[in-house]
Write a structure and sequence with these properties.
It is built from nine helices and 20 strands. The protein is of the alpha+beta class. The relative contact order is 0.18.
């Protein structure tokens, strides 16, 4: 009798799993994310340091992604196979709770009751995650080349080929790697091909725009144009700050997000250093807001960039770390703890592995200051509706 009961239970389990798998389209790819551990969240204070209006906006953008480009995405998290519908349901339920819960103190209790909370394994056994920031820079520019504005932003070249997620070009009938940063900026392989989108006045600021992926260009007539990521040359990303440190050209206290160590150098010296990072970004005009890797606008302080090989795209997360607080002159006067809900809506060439997160800080001087000085170890949690 006991043996028959065990067989019966086993059949039920197998049938249930089979039903789950049959719900997944045969063409869908299930990413196995082995970086999350289900935890008891009763001790976590789910406090948020921002208004809920920006959070709802970010949630709506992820929902839009799950209804369109991300509708066939599936992820295996521990013993659960999570599809876009479940991720969308998580966001819808969470948004409803935000609207119905007037008292923020009740939110932590509701989350524990209605959501599974997963901790990332991060980059060490303690689950540590390194947080940095990125922002939308403002550059001075022009539509035509002048002596002042002589550094081009290029649109995607027509000879750039994407085959099986590999970026290349065809030479003598063979696929070869696309041109490197040195070949483009120094050797000028793209000059005279009418690929210039705009021209700017500072090669270092332009490099920063390449790293950020989007920004605004202010013309001399006062018009402000927004440009965003269109494609890269497919080359590997290398940190020039790390390169300069390893070469002994700068000290740790001279390493700046804004690459101040390059100021005042000649174009040749600048390009010799920048060319160490072979990755090159091509741009396009945007209507207004910067767009993340989901094809949806990113929301200042609410959108984060993660590695999609380790974190589900568009998903709801909770972060806990320290942030810089500045005085009127832009100097850091303290670093204080904060936590907030965020959405995984972007990715970056330097954001690799389960232990890296980039927070989109927005546009303006404060955003630049925050992004430039944010480098903190903290915690990252994934929320899923039970």
């Amino acid at each position: 009798m006991k043996y028959s009961l065990k067989i019966f239970i086993l059949i039920i389990i197998i049938s249930s799993l089979g039903g789950c798998m049959r719900a997944i389209p045969k063409t869908a790819i299930v990413k196995s994310l082995e970086t999350f551990i289900l935890i008891d969240a009763e001790e976590i204070d789910f406090a948020d340091d921002l208004d809920y209006e920006s959070l709802e906006l970010a949630i709506d953008r992820s929902i839009d992604y799950y209804e369109k480009a991300g509708r066939n995405k599936f992820y295996k998290i521990e013993d659960r196979v999570i599809g876009a519908k479940k991720l969308k349901d998580t966001l819808t339920a969470f948004r409803d709770i935000l609207r119905e819960t007037g008292n923020r103190a009740d939110l932590s209790e509701i989350i524990v009751e209605e959501f599974d909370v997963y901790s990332t394994t991060g980059f060490d056994d303690e689950g540590g995650v390194l947080f940095t920031g990125y922002y939308e820079p403002l550059l001075a520019g022009a539509r035509e080349r002048t002596e002042k504005y002589r550094y081009p932003l290029y649109r995607v070249p027509p000879d750039l080929v994407i085959e099986e997620n590999q970026v290349s070009r065809i030479e003598d009938g063979k696929f070869v790697p696309y041109y490197s940063r040195r070949e483009i900026d120094v050797d000028g392989v793209l000059r005279g091909k009418n690929l210039e989108l705009l021209w700017v006045s500072d090669p270092v600021e332009l490099f920063s725009l390449h790293i950020q992926g989007s920004g605004k260009i202010k013309l001399e007539d006062g018009a402000v144009l927004t440009v965003g990521f269109a494609q890269t040359n497919g080359r590997s990303f290398s940190s020039i700050t790390k390169f300069m440190l390893e070469e002994g050209r700068i000290r740790n206290d001279e390493a700046s997000y804004r690459y101040d160590f390059l100021r005042g150098k000649s174009d040749q010296e600048i390009y010799d250093i920048l060319s160490h990072n072979e990755r090159y970004t091509f741009f396009r005009f945007l209507e207004k807001e910067p767009v993340g890797s989901l094809g949806e606008p990113v929301t200042p302080d609410r959108s984060i960039a993660t590695d999609p090989e380790f974190f589900p795209e568009g998903a709801l997360a909770f972060i806990n770390l320290r942030k810089p607080v500045f005085d009127e002159e832009g100097n850091i006067k303290e670093r204080k703890n904060f936590s907030r809900f965020v959405l995984s809506q972007d990715k970056g060439a330097a954001i690799k592995g389960p232990g890296r997160v980039d927070i989109f800080c927005g546009f303006g001087d404060k955003a630049e200051l925050t992004a430039g000085t944010l480098k903190e170890e903290g915690e990252l949690f994934l929320l899923l509706k039970k």
